[in-house]
Specification:
The complex is a heterodimer of chains A (515) and B (273). With 515 residues, chain A is mainly α. In chain A, 64% of the residues lie in helices and 10% in strands. Chain A is built from 21 helices and ten strands. In chain A, the strands form four sheets. Chain A has a three-stranded antiparallel β-sheet with strand order 3-10-4, sandwiched between helices. In chain A, β6, α16 and β7 form a beta-alpha-beta unit. In chain A, α3 packs across α4 and α5 crosses α6. Chain B is an alpha/beta fold. The relative contact order of chain B is 0.15. Chain B has ten helices and ten strands. In chain B, strands 6-7-8-3-9-10 form a six-stranded mixed β-sheet, sandwiched between helices. In chain B, strands 2-1-4-5 form a four-stranded antiparallel β-sheet, with helices on one face. Classes of the chains: A mainly alpha (515), B alpha/beta (273). At the A-B interface, α5 and α6 of A face α2 and α4 of B.
Chain lengths: 515, 273
Amino acid sequence: MNDAWAAAWARLPEYLGEHVVLSASALLLGLLISLPLTILAVRCRRVRWPILAFASTIQTIPSLALLALFYPLLLMLSALSQRLFGQGFAALGFLPSLLALTLYSMLPIIRNGVAGIVNLPPAIIEAARGVGMTDRQRLLRIELPLAAPMLMAGVRTAAVWVIGTATLSTPVGQTSLGNYIFSGLQVENWVSVLFGCAAAALLALVVDQMLALIETGVALRSRVRILTGTIVLLAGVAAAVIPRLQAAPTTYVIGAKNFSEQYILAELISQRLAAGQHRSVQRTGLGSAIAFRALSRNDIDVYVDYSGTLWANVMHRTDIPSREAMLAEVTHWLENERGITVLGTLGFENAYALAMHRERAQALGIRSIEDLARQSSQLTMGGDLEFFERPEWAALRSAYGLNFAARRQYQPTFMYRAVVSGEVDVIPAFSSDGRIAADDLVLLDDPRHALLPYDAIVLLAPARAGDDELKRALQPLVGSISIEAMRAANLSVDRDTDKLTPAAAARKLGAAVGH
Amino acid sequence: MTNEAPPSAPAVPAAIELTEVSKSFDGGSLAVRNVSFSVAPGTFIAIVGSSGSGKTTTLKMINRLIEPDSGTIRVEGERVDAQEPHALRRRIGYVFQGIGMFPHMSVAENIGITPRLLGWPAGQIETRTLELLDMVDLPRDFASRLPAALSGGQRQRVGVARALAARPGIMLMDEPFGALDPLTRDALGTSYRRLHERMQLTTLMVTHDVFEAVLLADRILVMREGVIVADGTPHDLLGNPPDDDVRALMDMPRRQSERVRSLLDNASPGSVP
């Protein structure tokens, strides 16, 4: 518990700082875009409805989807710009998050601004025209000052939304307070999840109160309130921005997908680089497809993927070669088609496999899926909620003629309990899952190669193909992690009691494998 | 076809001149049809008529708050459609029933708005503001108050002061005292008439109150369904109305005062000689 607290505190300056910079930029950009649109919508009745409808429509898109959609869109734009101007830009991380959050901030600002101005008493507008104001003078001297409280209320709403939604920028590779939440959810570190939620809520609360202070300051013509609110906000942004300007440029960007093993491996790589005096940052919690594209585009420099995933999802192959043949072909293909370097395998697989409790398997004399098939009509198969829909299950059934007496579906945690208690005889499992060792399960052999091999491999971005220093620093990892070592590390972060943080697990794993 | 000014034209142009002005709001029926009249400088004119007679539309076309469909309007000899609307309005005082105080500005800032738009020096604006507060019978310490702290009558006094601030020669007033209680209304009407005299203003006032028109104006225009149906001094129209409708309209103040008179007579019979 104390360990988790300390780890969370240690990360706060980085996560909070990134969160503040992102939110402040999005809000500022949102204001810069929304104010002219507000004025346009007020002045020109014909565009008022389209503008408000556009802003409302954006709100109906789930935030996470909006953030994720910007990544491929920016990839396209970046490719276009590369072709037109010979210069692309980073499509991962800050930019997609900024654009999505900016769009999110627009509705409350525009809607409140338009309502604030359009609903001013007609007599005031008539008087403004009557005393000889131009349209511009009327806007600046009458309409904007009188609509200011309403507009500020809109800005406050936008600020709270942006700060809350910014936690969702973690999966597109932007560090934020969401890193606490996403990694915490994955490894069931509730201290981390609560810490992230509380930090984001507290930040939103403080910003909201400072904006409220400015708002009442504007309404009451109190310079003290306006100044206090503005100074606190500016100081907060400055405190977040200045360390970023001074920080030496980070050298390497390490990617990780969104499950425990990936967090541990990213930490392990980071520790290896640190040992070689190389600075690095991590982009963790990435979607599987996003991680690969980000690497291809040099948005991240290194991450660990699995041969079977690349085989099926990137190369779109449906045949199942041997472990060695697949590895050779994946390596060759990535090199030639994408310029990606496969540094090597880590030494273990994280594959789909069938698992039985050791005692039960020995009692029935089952060592392989062939053995299992012979007895399957008297046995019960458990599965998680999606397993029986997956191609792996179809492949297994047709290869071995599996035909169980019964099937049961569980949440993953309960599935493991069911096989331990004997409620079911066999379950699917990921081969590097820590619970295999902890629950004393055995994995059944797959002599007919019905399941894809999933070797963990270290991938380097095209731009790092000639980076010998990076290769030297990471080379010791190749072939060094046994399935048992990985299972133990995974278990240490996944278990319910005495949990380790991914960083601590990586240190322990590194020590165990001799780094 | 050019309109050369005839040699007999007066040296001083009319303060306001409308020639065959029409306006429709829905593209069909005319709110104002073919209205022509001219106002000599220094005159106080009242336009009376029932709601929808086109009197407010006529007034607002003069400072281009409403644009006419056809016809020409001249102010001090110049066509209004040849001028920037805001420049035109800074030369013409405008007072209306809604008053339209700017709630975020003090009384002084409200009064000084047009001079400020015209770029007067700050010191001159301040002097003018205090002078105007005196003119509309408001204490000078009102200058720093916000409009919310004022009564309806006080607010309209500020409205009149605001309209007069940049020394316009012409005042357009749309039911200026319509929302005030009768006493305040009478007091404001009387004191405005004095200002009109003292500053040699040309005033065009729209009102539905014939009594007010008769007591304040030099000349009355009666409008009905977008057309001017009568035009004359209060004395002319009271004594010699052109038709029965105008007679009925003009008779109202007379009947009311006769009734009041007879009430007074009955209450103190001995006072009549």
